Amino acid sequence: MARLDPHSYTESSQPLAKHVALTLYFDFAARTIHGSALLTLPAAYTGPLLLDTRSLLIHSVLDPHTTAPIPFSLPSDPTPDPVLGQPLSLSLSAQSAALVVFSTSPTSSALQWLSPAQTASKAHPFVYTQCQSIHARSLFPSQDTPAARIVFSARLNLPHPLTAVMAAARAAAPRDPVPGEVGFACPDALWCAPGRSVEEFIMNRPIPPYLFAFAAGDIAARDVGLRTRVHAEGGAAVLDAAAREFAGAEEMIRAGEALFGPYEWGRFDLLVLPPSFPYGGMENPMMVFLTPTVIKGDASGAQVVAHELAHSWTGNLITNKTNEHFWLNEGFTTYAERRIVEVVQGEEIAALNMGIGWRGLNDEMERFKDNMEFTKLKPNLEGIDPDEIYSQVPYEKGFQFLWRIERQVGRPTFDEFLKKYIAKFKFQSIDTEAFLEFLKANLPGIENQIDLKQWVEGTGIPPDAMEPVSLIYSKIVSLSNEFKLGKIPKEQEVANWSGQEWELYIENLPKSVEPSQIAALDAHYRLSESRDYEVKVAFLQLAISSGCKEYFGEVERTLKQVGRMKYLRPLYTALVQGSAEETKMSARRIFAEARDTYHPIAQGVVESILAKHS
Ligand SMILES: [Zn+2]
Protein backbone atom coordinates (compact mmCIF):
# COMPACT_ATOMS: atom_id res chain seq x y z
CA MET A 1 0.00 0.00 0.00
CA ALA A 2 1.37 3.36 -0.96
CA ARG A 3 -0.29 6.71 -1.20
CA LEU A 4 -0.42 8.35 -4.59
CA ASP A 5 -0.19 11.84 -3.17
CA PRO A 6 0.88 13.19 0.26
CA HIS A 7 -2.40 15.14 0.34
CA SER A 8 -4.80 12.29 -0.35
CA TYR A 9 -5.72 8.90 1.12
CA THR A 10 -5.95 7.52 -2.44
CA GLU A 11 -3.97 4.28 -2.68
CA SER A 12 -1.83 3.58 -5.73
CA SER A 13 -2.91 -0.09 -5.70
CA GLN A 14 -6.61 0.80 -5.99
CA PRO A 15 -8.49 1.75 -9.19
CA LEU A 16 -9.24 5.42 -9.91
CA ALA A 17 -12.84 6.45 -10.57
CA LYS A 18 -13.29 7.69 -14.13
CA HIS A 19 -16.75 9.23 -13.85
CA VAL A 20 -18.74 10.86 -11.07
CA ALA A 21 -22.45 11.66 -11.29
CA LEU A 22 -23.51 14.13 -8.62
CA THR A 23 -27.01 14.91 -7.38
CA LEU A 24 -27.07 17.94 -5.09
CA TYR A 25 -29.96 19.43 -3.13
CA PHE A 26 -29.20 22.93 -1.80
CA ASP A 27 -30.59 23.87 1.63
CA PHE A 28 -29.59 27.54 1.99
CA ALA A 29 -31.20 27.96 5.42
CA ALA A 30 -29.13 25.11 6.88
CA ARG A 31 -26.05 25.93 4.75
CA THR A 32 -26.01 22.30 3.76
CA ILE A 33 -26.05 20.26 0.56
CA HIS A 34 -27.68 16.83 0.61
CA GLY A 35 -26.08 14.82 -2.12
CA SER A 36 -25.21 11.57 -3.74
CA ALA A 37 -22.07 10.78 -5.70
CA LEU A 38 -22.13 7.87 -8.12
CA LEU A 39 -18.52 6.85 -8.72
CA THR A 40 -17.76 4.60 -11.67
CA LEU A 41 -14.54 2.60 -11.89
CA PRO A 42 -12.92 1.43 -15.14
CA ALA A 43 -13.77 -2.22 -14.34
CA ALA A 44 -15.33 -4.45 -11.70
CA TYR A 45 -13.17 -4.50 -8.58
CA THR A 46 -13.02 -6.44 -5.35
CA GLY A 47 -11.34 -4.97 -2.29
CA PRO A 48 -11.10 -1.77 -0.29
CA LEU A 49 -11.47 1.61 -1.99
CA LEU A 50 -10.32 4.65 -0.03
CA LEU A 51 -11.95 8.03 -0.65
CA ASP A 52 -11.11 11.43 0.82
CA THR A 53 -13.69 13.23 2.94
CA ARG A 54 -13.68 16.24 5.22
CA SER A 55 -16.65 17.72 7.13
CA LEU A 56 -19.00 15.29 5.34
CA LEU A 57 -21.74 13.20 6.90
CA ILE A 58 -21.82 9.80 5.17
CA HIS A 59 -25.35 8.34 5.30
CA SER A 60 -25.04 5.20 3.20
CA VAL A 61 -23.18 3.55 0.34
CA LEU A 62 -25.18 1.54 -2.19
CA ASP A 63 -24.64 -0.62 -5.22
CA PRO A 64 -26.35 1.51 -7.88
CA HIS A 65 -27.58 -1.52 -9.83
CA THR A 66 -29.14 -3.50 -6.97
CA THR A 67 -29.43 -0.74 -4.32
CA ALA A 68 -27.89 -3.28 -1.92
CA PRO A 69 -25.72 -1.64 0.75
CA ILE A 70 -21.97 -1.62 0.23
CA PRO A 71 -20.07 -1.95 3.53
CA PHE A 72 -18.11 1.14 4.47
CA SER A 73 -16.17 2.49 7.42
CA LEU A 74 -14.69 5.70 8.75
CA PRO A 75 -11.80 5.81 11.25
CA SER A 76 -12.79 4.90 14.80
CA ASP A 77 -11.04 8.04 16.02
CA PRO A 78 -13.53 10.76 15.05
CA THR A 79 -10.87 13.50 15.04
CA PRO A 80 -10.00 14.20 11.41
CA ASP A 81 -6.41 14.62 10.32
CA PRO A 82 -5.92 18.43 10.30
CA VAL A 83 -4.62 18.39 6.72
CA LEU A 84 -6.17 15.34 5.07
CA GLY A 85 -9.57 14.97 6.73
CA GLN A 86 -10.89 11.40 7.03
CA PRO A 87 -10.60 8.37 4.76
CA LEU A 88 -13.87 6.69 3.81
CA SER A 89 -13.20 3.03 3.12
CA LEU A 90 -15.64 1.13 0.87
CA SER A 91 -15.54 -2.67 0.60
CA LEU A 92 -16.36 -3.58 -2.99
CA SER A 93 -16.96 -7.10 -4.23
CA ALA A 94 -16.90 -7.46 -8.01
CA GLN A 95 -18.50 -4.02 -8.33
CA SER A 96 -17.63 -1.27 -10.79
CA ALA A 97 -19.69 1.51 -9.21
CA ALA A 98 -20.71 2.85 -5.81
CA LEU A 99 -23.32 5.41 -4.84
CA VAL A 100 -22.31 7.38 -1.74
CA VAL A 101 -25.13 9.30 -0.03
CA PHE A 102 -23.86 12.21 2.06
CA SER A 103 -24.47 15.71 3.39
CA THR A 104 -22.01 18.57 3.54
CA SER A 105 -21.77 20.55 6.76
CA PRO A 106 -21.83 24.32 7.29
CA THR A 107 -18.08 24.11 7.93
CA SER A 108 -17.27 22.38 4.61
CA SER A 109 -14.20 24.32 3.54
CA ALA A 110 -14.95 24.29 -0.20
CA LEU A 111 -18.16 26.23 0.28
CA GLN A 112 -18.86 29.78 1.22
CA TRP A 113 -22.49 30.50 2.01
CA LEU A 114 -23.37 34.19 1.92
CA SER A 115 -26.46 35.63 3.53
CA PRO A 116 -28.43 38.16 1.43
CA ALA A 117 -26.80 40.95 3.45
CA GLN A 118 -23.35 39.72 2.39
CA THR A 119 -24.16 39.94 -1.34
CA ALA A 120 -24.13 42.98 -3.59
CA SER A 121 -27.84 42.66 -4.41
CA LYS A 122 -28.75 42.26 -0.70
CA ALA A 123 -31.83 40.33 -1.84
CA HIS A 124 -30.82 36.68 -2.19
CA PRO A 125 -28.37 34.24 -0.60
CA PHE A 126 -25.36 33.04 -2.57
CA VAL A 127 -23.05 30.05 -2.43
CA TYR A 128 -19.87 29.26 -4.32
CA THR A 129 -17.06 26.72 -4.25
CA GLN A 130 -13.28 26.92 -4.13
CA CYS A 131 -11.82 23.40 -4.31
CA GLN A 132 -8.11 24.10 -4.83
CA SER A 133 -5.96 22.83 -3.24
CA ILE A 134 -7.61 19.99 -1.33
CA HIS A 135 -11.17 21.11 -0.59
CA ALA A 136 -13.17 19.03 -3.10
CA ARG A 137 -13.28 16.34 -0.41
CA SER A 138 -15.42 18.63 1.75
CA LEU A 139 -17.99 18.82 -1.08
CA PHE A 140 -18.28 15.16 -2.10
CA PRO A 141 -16.35 11.96 -1.29
CA SER A 142 -13.63 11.64 -3.89
CA GLN A 143 -10.12 10.54 -4.72
CA ASP A 144 -9.10 14.12 -4.14
CA THR A 145 -5.73 14.13 -5.84
CA PRO A 146 -4.90 15.85 -9.14
CA ALA A 147 -3.39 12.52 -10.19
CA ALA A 148 -6.98 11.22 -10.53
CA ARG A 149 -8.78 12.91 -13.43
CA ILE A 150 -12.53 12.53 -13.72
CA VAL A 151 -15.35 13.45 -16.04
CA PHE A 152 -18.63 14.27 -14.34
CA SER A 153 -22.27 15.14 -14.62
CA ALA A 154 -24.13 17.16 -12.00
CA ARG A 155 -27.81 17.72 -11.22
CA LEU A 156 -28.48 20.67 -8.90
CA ASN A 157 -31.77 21.36 -7.11
CA LEU A 158 -32.21 25.02 -6.13
CA PRO A 159 -34.93 27.26 -4.69
CA HIS A 160 -36.55 29.86 -6.99
CA PRO A 161 -35.45 32.33 -8.24
CA LEU A 162 -31.82 31.31 -7.81
CA THR A 163 -29.81 30.01 -10.72
CA ALA A 164 -26.59 28.04 -10.91
CA VAL A 165 -23.48 28.22 -13.06
CA MET A 166 -20.80 25.56 -13.27
CA ALA A 167 -17.32 25.09 -14.64
CA ALA A 168 -18.91 22.67 -17.08
CA ALA A 169 -21.30 22.71 -20.02
CA ARG A 170 -25.00 23.24 -19.42
CA ALA A 171 -26.78 20.00 -20.35
CA ALA A 172 -30.34 21.33 -20.31
CA ALA A 173 -32.36 24.47 -19.56
CA PRO A 174 -33.54 24.86 -15.93
CA ARG A 175 -36.68 22.78 -15.38
CA ASP A 176 -39.06 21.49 -12.71
CA PRO A 177 -37.92 18.54 -10.56
CA VAL A 178 -39.13 15.07 -11.60
CA PRO A 179 -40.08 12.39 -9.03
CA GLY A 180 -37.68 9.48 -8.86
CA GLU A 181 -34.64 11.29 -10.26
CA VAL A 182 -33.14 12.25 -6.92
CA GLY A 183 -31.04 9.10 -6.53
CA PHE A 184 -31.24 8.90 -2.72
CA ALA A 185 -29.71 12.37 -2.19
CA CYS A 186 -32.80 13.47 -0.25
CA PRO A 187 -36.47 12.43 0.05
CA ASP A 188 -38.49 12.80 -3.17
CA ALA A 189 -40.92 15.12 -1.36
CA LEU A 190 -38.09 17.55 -0.64
CA TRP A 191 -36.62 17.27 -4.15
CA CYS A 192 -40.00 17.94 -5.78
CA ALA A 193 -41.30 20.55 -3.31
CA PRO A 194 -42.96 23.65 -4.84
CA GLY A 195 -40.57 26.48 -5.66
CA ARG A 196 -37.63 24.23 -6.58
CA SER A 197 -35.93 23.90 -9.94
CA VAL A 198 -33.31 21.59 -11.38
CA GLU A 199 -30.27 22.47 -13.47
CA GLU A 200 -27.98 19.98 -15.18
CA PHE A 201 -24.36 20.22 -16.26
CA ILE A 202 -21.78 17.99 -17.82
CA MET A 203 -17.98 18.00 -18.03
CA ASN A 204 -16.79 15.50 -20.61
CA ARG A 205 -13.09 16.34 -20.52
CA PRO A 206 -11.17 14.67 -17.67
CA ILE A 207 -10.32 17.18 -14.94
CA PRO A 208 -8.52 16.98 -11.59
CA PRO A 209 -11.02 17.25 -8.68
CA TYR A 210 -9.73 20.68 -7.59
CA LEU A 211 -11.25 22.13 -10.78
CA PHE A 212 -14.78 21.13 -9.80
CA ALA A 213 -16.73 24.38 -9.31
CA PHE A 214 -20.18 25.91 -9.11
CA ALA A 215 -21.92 29.02 -7.84
CA ALA A 216 -25.60 29.61 -7.15
CA GLY A 217 -27.47 32.80 -6.44
CA ASP A 218 -29.00 35.75 -8.23
CA ILE A 219 -26.62 35.59 -11.19
CA ALA A 220 -26.97 37.61 -14.39
CA ALA A 221 -24.95 37.27 -17.60
CA ARG A 222 -23.83 39.17 -20.69
CA ASP A 223 -21.94 38.08 -23.81
CA VAL A 224 -18.65 39.89 -24.37
CA GLY A 225 -17.21 37.76 -27.16
CA LEU A 226 -17.62 34.77 -29.39
CA ARG A 227 -16.69 32.30 -26.67
CA THR A 228 -16.98 34.52 -23.61
CA ARG A 229 -19.87 35.48 -21.39
CA VAL A 230 -19.49 37.43 -18.16
CA HIS A 231 -21.60 36.31 -15.19
CA ALA A 232 -21.98 38.29 -11.99
CA GLU A 233 -23.93 38.64 -8.82
CA GLY A 234 -24.74 42.24 -8.02
CA GLY A 235 -26.84 43.47 -10.91
CA ALA A 236 -26.36 45.60 -13.99
CA ALA A 237 -23.67 47.91 -12.59
CA VAL A 238 -21.26 45.06 -11.84
CA LEU A 239 -22.08 43.42 -15.16
CA ASP A 240 -21.46 46.65 -17.10
CA ALA A 241 -18.10 47.22 -15.43
CA ALA A 242 -17.09 43.58 -15.90
CA ALA A 243 -18.11 43.55 -19.56
CA ARG A 244 -15.97 46.66 -20.18
CA GLU A 245 -13.00 45.32 -18.24
CA PHE A 246 -12.96 41.95 -20.00
CA ALA A 247 -13.88 43.06 -23.51
CA GLY A 248 -10.44 41.91 -24.73
CA ALA A 249 -10.94 38.26 -23.72
CA GLU A 250 -11.36 36.93 -27.27
CA GLU A 251 -8.17 38.66 -28.41
CA MET A 252 -6.36 36.98 -25.52
CA ILE A 253 -7.73 33.54 -26.39
CA ARG A 254 -6.46 33.99 -29.94
CA ALA A 255 -3.05 35.10 -28.63
CA GLY A 256 -2.98 32.02 -26.39
CA GLU A 257 -3.89 29.72 -29.27
CA ALA A 258 -1.15 31.18 -31.46
CA LEU A 259 1.40 30.52 -28.71
CA PHE A 260 0.29 27.23 -27.17
CA GLY A 261 -2.05 25.46 -29.59
CA PRO A 262 -5.84 25.09 -29.83
CA TYR A 263 -8.09 26.17 -26.94
CA GLU A 264 -9.55 22.80 -25.92
CA TRP A 265 -12.37 23.79 -23.56
CA GLY A 266 -14.99 25.28 -25.87
CA ARG A 267 -16.16 28.26 -23.86
CA PHE A 268 -14.15 30.71 -21.80
CA ASP A 269 -16.72 32.32 -19.48
CA LEU A 270 -15.98 34.55 -16.51
CA LEU A 271 -17.79 34.66 -13.18
CA VAL A 272 -17.30 37.76 -11.02
CA LEU A 273 -17.83 36.71 -7.40
CA PRO A 274 -18.64 38.73 -4.29
CA PRO A 275 -15.66 40.48 -2.61
CA SER A 276 -15.09 37.57 -0.19
CA PHE A 277 -13.63 35.38 -2.97
CA PRO A 278 -10.26 34.37 -1.47
CA TYR A 279 -8.18 34.45 -4.68
CA GLY A 280 -7.60 36.86 -7.57
CA GLY A 281 -8.91 34.26 -9.92
CA MET A 282 -9.45 30.53 -10.07
CA GLU A 283 -8.90 28.79 -13.38
CA ASN A 284 -12.03 26.61 -13.25
CA PRO A 285 -12.38 25.13 -16.75
CA MET A 286 -14.87 26.78 -19.13
CA MET A 287 -15.66 29.33 -16.41
CA VAL A 288 -12.97 31.26 -14.58
CA PHE A 289 -13.93 32.57 -11.13
CA LEU A 290 -12.73 36.12 -10.36
CA THR A 291 -12.52 38.56 -7.48
CA PRO A 292 -14.36 41.83 -8.17
CA THR A 293 -11.11 43.62 -7.24
CA VAL A 294 -9.77 42.86 -10.73
CA ILE A 295 -12.33 45.26 -12.13
CA LYS A 296 -10.30 48.45 -11.93
CA GLY A 297 -11.91 50.40 -14.71
CA ASP A 298 -8.78 50.60 -16.86
CA ALA A 299 -8.60 47.06 -18.32
CA SER A 300 -5.54 46.36 -16.16
CA GLY A 301 -7.43 43.41 -14.65
CA ALA A 302 -6.50 41.82 -17.96
CA GLN A 303 -3.37 40.41 -16.35
CA VAL A 304 -5.36 38.19 -13.95
CA VAL A 305 -7.60 37.11 -16.85
CA ALA A 306 -4.52 36.34 -18.95
CA HIS A 307 -3.23 34.21 -16.08
CA GLU A 308 -6.45 32.22 -15.66
CA LEU A 309 -6.77 31.84 -19.43
CA ALA A 310 -3.18 30.57 -19.64
CA HIS A 311 -4.17 27.81 -17.20
CA SER A 312 -6.39 26.44 -19.98
CA TRP A 313 -3.15 25.02 -21.38
CA THR A 314 -0.84 24.80 -18.36
CA GLY A 315 -2.60 23.48 -15.26
CA ASN A 316 -5.92 22.39 -16.70
CA LEU A 317 -4.65 20.54 -19.78
CA ILE A 318 -1.38 19.48 -18.14
CA THR A 319 -1.80 19.18 -14.39
CA ASN A 320 0.64 18.72 -11.54
CA LYS A 321 0.36 15.14 -10.25
CA THR A 322 0.52 16.34 -6.64
CA ASN A 323 0.94 19.69 -4.93
CA GLU A 324 4.67 19.04 -4.58
CA HIS A 325 4.82 19.74 -8.32
CA PHE A 326 2.59 22.83 -8.16
CA TRP A 327 5.21 24.81 -10.08
CA LEU A 328 4.29 22.80 -13.18
CA ASN A 329 0.88 24.50 -12.94
CA GLU A 330 1.85 27.95 -11.75
CA GLY A 331 5.36 28.50 -13.10
CA PHE A 332 4.25 27.56 -16.61
CA THR A 333 1.09 29.63 -16.27
CA THR A 334 2.98 32.70 -15.07
CA TYR A 335 5.32 32.32 -18.04
CA ALA A 336 2.37 31.81 -20.44
CA GLU A 337 0.45 34.74 -18.88
CA ARG A 338 3.36 37.11 -19.55
CA ARG A 339 3.68 35.92 -23.12
CA ILE A 340 -0.02 36.67 -23.66
CA VAL A 341 0.31 40.06 -21.93
CA GLU A 342 3.30 40.83 -24.16
CA VAL A 343 1.15 40.23 -27.26
CA VAL A 344 -1.93 42.19 -26.16
CA GLN A 345 -0.41 44.91 -23.93
CA GLY A 346 3.18 45.11 -25.08
CA GLU A 347 6.69 44.27 -23.89
CA GLU A 348 6.94 47.08 -21.35
CA ILE A 349 3.83 45.95 -19.44
CA ALA A 350 5.03 42.35 -19.52
CA ALA A 351 8.37 43.53 -18.10
CA LEU A 352 6.53 45.43 -15.34
CA ASN A 353 4.68 42.24 -14.38
CA MET A 354 7.99 40.40 -14.34
CA GLY A 355 9.43 43.10 -12.11
CA ILE A 356 6.54 42.88 -9.65
CA GLY A 357 7.02 39.10 -9.65
CA TRP A 358 10.79 39.43 -9.08
CA ARG A 359 10.14 41.67 -6.07
CA GLY A 360 7.57 39.16 -4.76
CA LEU A 361 9.97 36.23 -5.16
CA ASN A 362 12.66 38.06 -3.20
CA ASP A 363 10.14 38.84 -0.44
CA GLU A 364 9.26 35.13 -0.16
CA MET A 365 12.93 34.33 0.51
CA GLU A 366 12.65 36.60 3.54
CA ARG A 367 9.34 34.98 4.62
CA PHE A 368 10.80 31.47 4.44
CA LYS A 369 14.30 32.28 5.71
CA ASP A 370 13.80 29.84 8.61
CA ASN A 371 12.17 27.20 6.44
CA MET A 372 14.06 27.15 3.16
CA GLU A 373 12.37 23.88 2.11
CA PHE A 374 9.48 26.02 0.85
CA THR A 375 11.80 28.01 -1.42
CA LYS A 376 12.39 24.84 -3.48
CA LEU A 377 10.55 24.39 -6.77
CA LYS A 378 9.81 20.83 -5.68
CA PRO A 379 9.38 20.93 -1.89
CA ASN A 380 8.58 18.06 0.44
CA LEU A 381 4.98 18.71 1.58
CA GLU A 382 4.34 15.58 3.63
CA GLY A 383 2.08 16.67 6.51
CA ILE A 384 1.97 20.28 5.26
CA ASP A 385 -1.29 22.07 4.45
CA PRO A 386 -0.81 23.53 0.95
CA ASP A 387 -2.91 26.59 1.85
CA GLU A 388 -0.56 27.46 4.68
CA ILE A 389 2.62 27.56 2.59
CA TYR A 390 0.95 29.01 -0.51
CA SER A 391 3.46 31.50 -1.89
CA GLN A 392 4.90 33.15 -4.99
CA VAL A 393 7.71 30.58 -5.15
CA PRO A 394 6.04 28.06 -7.54
CA TYR A 395 4.85 31.02 -9.65
CA GLU A 396 7.91 33.21 -9.83
CA LYS A 397 10.75 30.73 -9.38
CA GLY A 398 8.94 28.50 -11.87
CA PHE A 399 8.68 31.46 -14.25
CA GLN A 400 12.37 32.23 -13.77
CA PHE A 401 13.31 28.62 -14.52
CA LEU A 402 11.37 28.59 -17.80
CA TRP A 403 12.64 32.04 -18.76
CA ARG A 404 16.18 30.82 -18.09
CA ILE A 405 15.63 27.91 -20.50
CA GLU A 406 14.15 30.30 -23.07
CA ARG A 407 17.24 32.53 -22.84
CA GLN A 408 19.49 29.49 -23.28
CA VAL A 409 17.85 28.00 -26.35
CA GLY A 410 16.31 31.12 -27.88
CA ARG A 411 12.65 31.98 -28.14
CA PRO A 412 11.75 30.21 -31.41
CA THR A 413 13.19 26.91 -30.17
CA PHE A 414 11.54 27.29 -26.78
CA ASP A 415 8.17 28.12 -28.35
CA GLU A 416 8.37 25.00 -30.43
CA PHE A 417 9.28 23.01 -27.31
CA LEU A 418 6.29 24.42 -25.40
CA LYS A 419 3.82 23.48 -28.13
CA LYS A 420 5.26 19.97 -28.25
CA TYR A 421 5.12 19.66 -24.46
CA ILE A 422 1.47 20.68 -24.35
CA ALA A 423 0.49 18.38 -27.23
CA LYS A 424 2.34 15.48 -25.63
CA PHE A 425 0.92 15.69 -22.10
CA LYS A 426 -2.54 17.22 -22.57
CA PHE A 427 -5.26 15.83 -20.29
CA GLN A 428 -2.57 14.16 -18.17
CA SER A 429 -1.29 14.74 -14.65
CA ILE A 430 2.50 14.67 -14.53
CA ASP A 431 5.40 15.25 -12.15
CA THR A 432 8.61 17.26 -12.36
CA GLU A 433 10.60 14.20 -13.43
CA ALA A 434 8.36 13.69 -16.47
CA PHE A 435 8.95 17.33 -17.44
CA LEU A 436 12.73 17.06 -17.00
CA GLU A 437 12.88 13.88 -19.03
CA PHE A 438 10.90 15.50 -21.85
CA LEU A 439 13.08 18.61 -21.62
CA LYS A 440 16.33 16.67 -21.92
CA ALA A 441 14.97 14.53 -24.76
CA ASN A 442 13.76 17.52 -26.77
CA LEU A 443 16.47 20.06 -25.99
CA PRO A 444 19.52 17.77 -26.03
CA GLY A 445 22.43 18.95 -23.91
CA ILE A 446 20.33 21.38 -21.86
CA GLU A 447 21.50 19.65 -18.66
CA ASN A 448 25.09 20.69 -19.47
CA GLN A 449 24.09 24.31 -19.97
CA ILE A 450 21.75 24.84 -17.03
CA ASP A 451 22.08 23.36 -13.54
CA LEU A 452 18.65 21.69 -13.62
CA LYS A 453 19.17 20.02 -10.26
CA GLN A 454 19.88 23.33 -8.55
CA TRP A 455 16.79 24.90 -10.12
CA VAL A 456 14.46 22.05 -9.16
CA GLU A 457 15.86 20.82 -5.86
CA GLY A 458 17.89 23.75 -4.57
CA THR A 459 16.73 26.36 -2.06
CA GLY A 460 16.74 30.11 -2.66
CA ILE A 461 17.09 31.95 -5.95
CA PRO A 462 19.65 30.41 -8.35
CA PRO A 463 22.48 32.75 -9.45
CA ASP A 464 21.39 32.57 -13.10
CA ALA A 465 17.88 33.90 -12.31
CA MET A 466 17.44 37.40 -13.71
CA GLU A 467 15.82 40.70 -12.83
CA PRO A 468 13.88 41.97 -15.87
CA VAL A 469 15.41 44.70 -17.99
CA SER A 470 13.19 47.49 -19.30
CA LEU A 471 13.25 51.26 -19.43
CA ILE A 472 10.11 51.79 -17.32
CA TYR A 473 11.14 49.14 -14.83
CA SER A 474 14.61 50.65 -14.27
CA LYS A 475 13.16 54.15 -14.01
CA ILE A 476 10.70 53.06 -11.31
CA VAL A 477 13.33 51.22 -9.32
CA SER A 478 15.59 54.29 -9.42
CA LEU A 479 12.70 56.52 -8.27
CA SER A 480 12.12 54.08 -5.38
CA ASN A 481 15.80 54.37 -4.48
CA GLU A 482 15.55 58.18 -4.51
CA PHE A 483 12.70 58.00 -2.01
CA LYS A 484 15.22 56.67 0.50
CA LEU A 485 17.00 60.02 0.12
CA GLY A 486 13.80 61.86 0.89
CA LYS A 487 12.62 62.50 -2.68
CA ILE A 488 9.02 62.08 -3.79
CA PRO A 489 8.51 61.48 -7.53
CA LYS A 490 7.51 64.57 -9.53
CA GLU A 491 4.10 64.77 -11.16
CA GLN A 492 5.51 64.60 -14.66
CA GLU A 493 7.47 61.50 -13.71
CA VAL A 494 4.33 59.60 -12.75
CA ALA A 495 1.94 61.19 -15.25
CA ASN A 496 1.54 57.96 -17.25
CA TRP A 497 1.55 55.57 -14.33
CA SER A 498 -1.24 53.09 -13.86
CA GLY A 499 -1.67 50.72 -10.93
CA GLN A 500 1.14 48.38 -11.90
CA GLU A 501 3.75 51.15 -11.97
CA TRP A 502 2.67 52.37 -8.54
CA GLU A 503 2.63 48.85 -7.16
CA LEU A 504 6.17 48.26 -8.35
CA TYR A 505 7.28 51.63 -6.99
CA ILE A 506 5.85 50.99 -3.51
CA GLU A 507 7.14 47.43 -3.37
CA ASN A 508 10.66 48.63 -4.07
CA LEU A 509 10.61 51.08 -1.17
CA PRO A 510 12.29 50.03 2.12
CA LYS A 511 10.01 47.97 4.37
CA SER A 512 9.92 50.71 6.97
CA VAL A 513 10.33 54.42 6.40
CA GLU A 514 9.79 57.69 8.27
CA PRO A 515 6.04 58.16 8.97
CA SER A 516 6.32 61.77 7.79
CA GLN A 517 7.61 60.56 4.40
CA ILE A 518 4.65 58.17 4.06
CA ALA A 519 2.23 60.97 4.85
CA ALA A 520 3.92 63.29 2.35
CA LEU A 521 3.76 60.69 -0.42
CA ASP A 522 0.08 60.05 0.28
CA ALA A 523 -0.77 63.73 0.52
CA HIS A 524 0.55 64.05 -3.02
CA TYR A 525 -0.79 60.92 -4.70
CA ARG A 526 -3.64 59.66 -2.48
CA LEU A 527 -2.41 56.07 -2.65
CA SER A 528 -4.35 55.04 0.46
CA GLU A 529 -7.55 55.87 -1.41
CA SER A 530 -6.61 54.19 -4.69
CA ARG A 531 -9.42 52.25 -6.37
CA ASP A 532 -6.75 49.76 -7.34
CA TYR A 533 -6.44 47.38 -4.39
CA GLU A 534 -2.93 46.29 -5.42
CA VAL A 535 -1.76 49.87 -4.94
CA LYS A 536 -3.84 50.57 -1.88
CA VAL A 537 -2.79 47.40 -0.05
CA ALA A 538 0.91 47.80 -0.95
CA PHE A 539 0.72 51.35 0.44
CA LEU A 540 -1.19 50.39 3.60
CA GLN A 541 1.24 47.54 4.31
CA LEU A 542 4.11 50.02 4.14
CA ALA A 543 2.18 52.47 6.31
CA ILE A 544 1.56 49.86 9.05
CA SER A 545 5.14 48.60 9.11
CA SER A 546 6.30 52.21 9.33
CA GLY A 547 4.03 52.78 12.31
CA CYS A 548 1.70 55.37 10.71
CA LYS A 549 -1.28 55.22 13.04
CA GLU A 550 -3.44 57.53 10.94
CA TYR A 551 -3.95 54.76 8.34
CA PHE A 552 -5.28 52.12 10.73
CA GLY A 553 -8.87 53.14 9.99
CA GLU A 554 -8.34 52.60 6.26
CA VAL A 555 -6.64 49.26 6.96
CA GLU A 556 -9.64 48.14 8.99
CA ARG A 557 -12.10 49.24 6.27
CA THR A 558 -10.09 47.36 3.64
CA LEU A 559 -9.93 44.17 5.72
CA LYS A 560 -13.69 44.34 6.12
CA GLN A 561 -14.40 45.03 2.43
CA VAL A 562 -12.47 42.26 0.69
CA GLY A 563 -11.57 38.67 1.49
CA ARG A 564 -8.87 38.16 -1.16
CA MET A 565 -5.98 36.43 0.60
CA LYS A 566 -3.42 38.41 -1.40
CA TYR A 567 -4.55 41.44 0.67
CA LEU A 568 -5.43 39.73 3.96
CA ARG A 569 -2.02 38.06 4.27
CA PRO A 570 0.22 41.17 4.11
CA LEU A 571 -2.13 43.43 6.08
CA TYR A 572 -2.72 41.02 8.96
CA THR A 573 0.97 40.05 8.96
CA ALA A 574 2.04 43.71 9.11
CA LEU A 575 -0.41 44.32 11.98
CA VAL A 576 0.73 41.36 14.11
CA GLN A 577 4.38 42.13 13.44
CA GLY A 578 3.89 45.67 14.69
CA SER A 579 5.94 46.54 17.75
CA ALA A 580 2.99 48.12 19.61
CA GLU A 581 0.74 45.73 21.55
CA GLU A 582 -2.19 47.90 20.47
CA THR A 583 -1.51 47.05 16.80
CA LYS A 584 -1.49 43.32 17.50
CA MET A 585 -4.71 43.62 19.48
CA SER A 586 -6.39 45.46 16.63
CA ALA A 587 -5.53 42.58 14.26
CA ARG A 588 -7.39 40.18 16.54
CA ARG A 589 -10.36 42.50 16.97
CA ILE A 590 -10.71 43.19 13.23
CA PHE A 591 -10.52 39.46 12.44
CA ALA A 592 -13.15 38.65 15.08
CA GLU A 593 -15.47 41.21 13.46
CA ALA A 594 -14.71 40.35 9.82
CA ARG A 595 -14.31 36.57 10.14
CA ASP A 596 -17.82 35.68 8.96
CA THR A 597 -17.36 37.60 5.73
CA TYR A 598 -14.27 35.54 4.76
CA HIS A 599 -14.24 32.24 2.88
CA PRO A 600 -13.31 29.28 5.17
CA ILE A 601 -9.93 28.96 3.40
CA ALA A 602 -9.14 32.61 4.14
CA GLN A 603 -10.34 32.22 7.73
CA GLY A 604 -7.85 29.38 8.19
CA VAL A 605 -5.01 31.38 6.70
CA VAL A 606 -5.62 34.44 8.91
CA GLU A 607 -5.99 32.20 11.97
CA SER A 608 -2.57 30.73 11.28
CA ILE A 609 -1.02 34.21 10.86
CA LEU A 610 -2.48 35.31 14.20
CA ALA A 611 -1.46 32.06 15.93
CA LYS A 612 2.17 32.43 14.80
CA HIS A 613 2.44 35.79 16.52
CA SER A 614 0.42 35.14 19.66
ZN1 LIG B 1 -2.52 30.23 -11.34
From TrEMBL:
One biological process term in Gene Ontology: proteolysis
The protein's required cofactors: Zn(2+)
Gene3D superfamilies linked: 3.30.2010.30, Neutral Protease Domain 2, Peptidase M1, leukotriene A4 hydrolase/aminopeptidase C-terminal domain, tricorn interacting facor f3 domain
Residues engaged in binding Zn(2+): H307, H311, E330
InterPro entries: Aminopeptidase_N-like_N, Aminopeptidase_N-like_N_sf, ARM-type_fold, LTA4H_cat, M1_LTA-4_hydro/amino_C_sf, M1_LTA4H, Peptidase_M1, Peptidase_M1_C
Main location: cytoplasm
Superkingdom classification of source: Eukaryota
Pfam family, one: Leuk-A4-hydro_C
Enzyme class: hydrolase
Active site residues of this protein: E308, Y395
The reaction(s) this protein catalyses: an epoxide + H2O = an ethanediol
Residue sites binding a peptide per the record: Q130, C131, Q132, P278, Y279, G280, G281, M282, E283, R564, M565, K566
Described purpose of this protein according to its UniProt entry: Aminopeptidase that preferentially cleaves di- and tripeptides. Also has low epoxide hydrolase activity (in vitro). Can hydrolyze the epoxide leukotriene LTA(4) but it forms preferentially 5,6-dihydroxy-7,9,11,14-eicosatetraenoic acid rather than the cytokine leukotriene B(4) as the product compared to the homologous mammalian enzyme (in vitro).
Protein name as catalogued: Leucine aminopeptidase
Organism lineage: Eukaryota, Viridiplantae, Streptophyta, Embryophyta, Tracheophyta
